[in-house]
Amino acid sequence: MTVWKTCLAAMATLSLVSAAVPAKAEPVKNIVLVHGAWVDASGWKPVYDILKRQGFNVTMAQEPETSFADDVAAVKRVLDMQKGPTLLVGHSYGGSLITEAGVHPNVVGLVYVAAHAPDVGEDEGSLGKKTPSVLAKTAGAIQKTPDGYTYLNPADFPKLFAPDLPHERSEFVARSQVLAAASVFTTPLTVAAWKTKPSWGIVAGGDQIINPDLERWYYARAKSHTTEIKGASHSVYESHPREVAAVIADAARHLQQDAIGKAKK
């Protein structure tokens, strides 16, 4: 009987100790950055450098921009490589991609950076026409090749896409564009990850490629935690990397705290 009482006392002690230990949640250390149309992932380097110094495991997706399906597949391929919870970040057209690819089981949250965030059945081209940008009102700014690929007129690129970057850099980006199939902008989404996963949104206050009012509308509809960087151009991820990286890092910390709270319940 004495042995039995001793065992019961030990079990009670273990229960009290277990209750006192905070619930653990796997830290959100994986971040996947998704670029937009007409550019490649190299523009993320300033944000990448900051997040790497903070201890995050950062990977960039390189989309071919040959079709919406090809681009979503490219993002999912990178997500398959991640071990553990992952924060998915998209810029511009990349916002449509993370909205579609973000249902991937590794993804725990989304960050939209001056990005589109359509709903199921919507496409960013149609939504952009309803809230036109400076780009949409600039005749001849968007050019198309005979086989249906689009690009920004290199003469217009620096002033529309990246006016707050050094001119030498914006000219280089203008001349190193990845031509995007016109169909990528008009393909309706089949899922909307922001409906089921927490999201954050960055409004580029001086954006001339996507109307800042459209960005605000997207994020309000998705109930995203929203930050506005006043005066920033569409190249906000490259011209204001500290502010963009701060939002991404804060989202990762917030997601971990949420996971800890759920584990305690």
Question: Can you describe what's shown?
Answer:
By secondary structure, the chain is an alpha/beta fold. It has a single domain, classed as Rossmann fold (3-Layer(aba) Sandwich), CATH 3.40.50.1820. The protein contains ten helices and nine strands. A six-stranded parallel beta sheet has the order 2-1-3-4-8-9, with helices on both faces. It has a three-stranded antiparallel beta sheet with strand order 5-6-7, with no helix packed on it. It starts with a helix and ends with a helix.
Characterize this entry briefly.
This protein is α/β, with parallel strands linked by helices and 265 residues long. It contains ten helices and nine strands. The two termini are 36 Å apart.
List the helices and strands and how they pair.
Elements: H1 2-20, E1 30-34, H2 45-53, E2 57-61, H3 68-80, E3 86-91, H4 93-101, E4 107-113, H5 124-130, E5 142-144, E6 149-152, H6 157-160, H7 167-175, E7 180-181, E8 199-204, H8 212-221, E9 225-229, H9 236-239, H10 241-264
Parallel strand pairs: 1-2, 1-3, 3-4, 4-8, 8-9
Antiparallel strand pairs: 5-6, 6-7
Helix pairs in contact: 2-10, 3-4
Features:
Alpha/beta hydrolase; hydrolase activity; disordered N terminus; hydrolase; 10 helices; alpha/beta; AB_hydrolase_1; AB_hydrolase_fold; 6-stranded parallel beta sheet; Rossmann fold; single chain
The fourth-level CATH homologous superfamily is Alpha/Beta hydrolase fold, catalytic domain
Helix content: 40-55%
- Any idea what the radius of gyration is? 22 Å
Quote the CATH topology.
Answer: Rossmann fold
Our count of helices gives: 10
- The CATH architecture classification is 3-Layer(aba) Sandwich
Please tell me the overall pLDDT.
Answer: 91
Succession of helices and strands:
HEHEHEHEHEEHHEEHEHH
Shape: globular
Helix/strand/pairing category: alpha/beta
Estimated share of beta-strand residues: 15-25%
The strand line-up of the biggest sheet is: 2-1-3-4-8-9
